[in-house]
Amino acid sequence: MYLHNRLSLVRCYDGSRRPFCFVTFIVTYFVMFIVTFFGAFLLHFSLRVGGWFSNGGSNVVDVQELLDHHIFHDLGENVGRVKTILVKNADLVQRDFSVREAAGPACTLFYIDGLSNNMLIDAGVLRPLIIDSVLRDRIAGSTDSGREHRPAGPHQTAERLLINPEVKFADTYQKAIDGLLAGESLLFIDGVDEALLVGTKGWESRSPGETATEVVIRGPRDGFTENIRTNTSLIRRRIKDPMFRLESLQIGTRTKTFVNVVYIEGIAKQELVDEVMTRLESIQVDSVLESGYLEELISDAPWSPFRTVKLTERPDVVAAAILEGRVAILTDSTPFVLVAPTSFWEGLMASDDYYSHFYLGTFSRIIRYIAFIVSLTLSSIYVMLVSFHQEMIPTELALSVAAGRETVPFPVLVEVLGMETAFELMREAGLRMPRPIGQAVSIVGSLIIGQAAVQAGLVSPIMVIVVAVTGISSFAIPSYSTSFTIRLLRFPIIIASGTLGLLGFVGAMFVITVHALSLRSFGEPFLAPMIPFQPSDQKDALVRSPWWMLKSRPWIAKDVTRQGNDQMPKAPKNNGSGKADLAPDEKASDGQSHKSAQGKPGSDHGDSKSSASSGQQKRAQPAGTGEQKDKTRRSRKPKKILGGA
Amino acid sequence: MTTKITTAMFMALVINLGFAKGIGLTQGIMARESENDIWIATILSVLQGAVLMLITVWVIRRRPDMTILEQFDAIVGKWIGKVMALLAFVFFLGAYIAILITFVYHFMDYFLPEFPVWMFVLAAVAIPVYAVFHGLEVTARIAVLGVFSIVALNLLIMVGSLKDVELDRLLPVFETGFWNTVATTRHYDTDWAMATMTAGMILPLVNDTKSWAKGAVGGVLYGGILVLLWPILECGVLSAPQTGHYIVACMQMARSAQVGLFLHRYEMIMIAFFGISLLVQLMLLIFCASLAGSHVMGMKDYRGVVIPVSLILGGSGYFVVLNHNRAMSLLTNNWPVIALPIAIGLPLLGWLLGLMFKKKLAAAA
């Protein structure tokens, strides 16, 4: 009743309450609705008009509608449409001409200055259509009428006149403009409702040089560039296999970035390739400017600090990965190539592990594992011991630590966090500044500031040593992304250890381990082959076994046979007369080598080079059965050696 | 619950389940009863555990796609099945408390005596719950890591204490009597009971049915060998009366280990290894308690009850570990009485009922 009264009585301006008039309410509501509606309409209209004026009227036309349209017969209409779509593009070049010096149909060529190679346009498009077509007519004129040779459409033009090796046809403006913006030349012929896209791509690009992030002592010096085709050629140069596959797609509605997926059919699992393609094809973004975009869009664990896709700018690393059954994803405009699947341990492996002697490779690898543990835990262990478990430190060391910390006014946790942050700051500053200045910053930061901080009593000398060793250890990790992950994880472990002691340290490590164990990279466990333990892959995990022992590819490959049996080289037996007792094949090889050394025609290699190339040739033939083994052995015959050389 | 684990992973889980409490608290309790015969009691207990494990495997093998609780559902109906699930839940609750006692007293008494108890309990709940949400596969992988850490821990203790072993301290055998030694095995049986009850819950998630028995019994035996080192060292180095004086006998053992002059205290390294095994136990017990809890509630996915179950487990455990006397009294006097009837009774009942209602079990959906 109270509510009813409140609703049915309205308070008037004089303070009295009167019955609620329903008609008044409806009328008022209707008037408000009309006013609001027209207000919104006027606002919308004014914005549109403002848009017309501000954009010169170009946005009124829906560009997508124009792009979807079929190419016209009329050349003028086609030219007009292209200019409408690509309005205000100062680098769009238009060249009007006629085939056969005005005797043929009128044509218009469009290209983007800077994306297309002028020489190619001249030699591959303009010259054949304007000049060579006339010569061709003159030659053919003695037997046929010129009319029969007149090109009737783009296909005939492409077949008979254009000498450029790459010619495509576009029936819609979408295809035509896409090609034009990708660097191809767009050719319209009057009276023809198809356009020609001539492959004249050519722009300034960096030549393959040494990578900055993956430096090796021994190994190839070339690195990927920003040109995707250069990058694919760098891989193809290394893998001359007919089963090599390169699938292309464009990602990004506006950037239309070329992305190539590279693998070897038969070695890579088809499910893996399908999964990669599915993930890439499902990406719907407006732009892909670097492979980092793709990495985040196809990652198995987007919130994880661990990278489940490998990143490299070395062609040899990509080639090796492909040969192990992985899939590489190349993105145009970046030298960084993605490789999937990957495991955490790959971040601790360097490419020159495989090029150096296996003892050195193994030693370096073990050092890197130690570096990983030190980098992740040393600061936390120091904080934990000094803050909570002093009794665990040997007495002499405990006294040294105590003496060093005597003047330090901060708790150990604050001290470590401050030092680690300062170290990261110096690293970042050194990275962003020009190289000579960056080095100076590092030296000033590490030596002068560090020394001054110790002398001022702000940090203890042992703390400087701990942070420096931690930092150096993180530099020993070859993969920048793995190193970054470890740096990132170090901080929560330090905080947990500094606040909860051993409990915090164990808890933080356990949570990180659980998280890492739950990760997968394109379906494969991220911590394999350690966990789950793959006995067959241990030859190339903690240690790097010699190549003649690496008989099988990793677990991820479809075809795991990498090489034949009995690949271990054997020295010839000594027959007691001081000469080696060579096998018949090897004797022949020896003789042949001598001949070649004496200047046999067709060979300019010495013994050692021939032997080396024979070894390479032999390993290039995968052989698993006994018959294959025999073939492998036969490949050591001198004729093949010289042929191969 | 579709992810399957391998037999090796299952074996690793079994090894971990019998280890952490078995080397310390259990040995201390046993030493108070049968003195220097604890190593014999350990051997006898391992053999009993192997037999019980074999029975459990036989029961589950009848319907490899069903847990022991689901088999009860199929044979005796839903409501009696829920009662069985409740019994299993009670077992896992008690087992969790027993392991929580181990966890808290290791860390609190020997490393962080000034920390409040709730911090340890929070860690013992939050960290395993995080892992449980990732599923059994992740837990099983950590268990593999746990086995490596157990081996490392055993090597460390051997390196640090073999020089101090006096085998005379192990003799004479059966000093407190044969039957007393046999009776003492009940304490270590509660540890193996955790493994057999867990097997009853997770065996359907193990890949290869044929290798179940091998993996399960192998796990008990390998785990037994790894545990057996500790009572021998504890008696040989500390002596049985000393071992019986400590709540956490293995920590005292680890504290007395020394490698040279510089590494005179390395129990922290050992506890870091030990912690993995301990946390695996906690994870598995929360996982199995959640499975039993979801069965009682009639839920299909255990993840829905993980948080409430872990709160019940953690809350109960907190109450127990607050008082050392209460905790040790529970472990020594009450826990074997509660645990063993359930752990032995459920598989035997399952085996008997399965035998009687073979067709009904086979026909169940």
Automatic annotation (TrEMBL), chain B:
Source organism superkingdom: Bacteria
GO biological process: spore germination
Record keywords: Germination, Membrane, Transmembrane, Transmembrane helix, Transport
Subcellular compartments: Membrane
Primary location group: membrane
An example Gene Ontology CC term for this record: membrane
Topology class, membrane: Multi-pass membrane protein
Transmembrane segments: 39-60, 80-105, 117-136, 143-162, 212-233, 269-292, 304-323, 335-357
Keyword flag Transmembrane helix: yes
Pfam family, one: Spore_permease
Family stated for the protein in its record: Belongs to the amino acid-polyamine-organocation (APC) superfamily. Spore germination protein (SGP) (TC 2.A.3.9) family.
Identification of the protein by name: Spore gernimation protein
Species this protein is from: Alicyclobacillus ferrooxydans
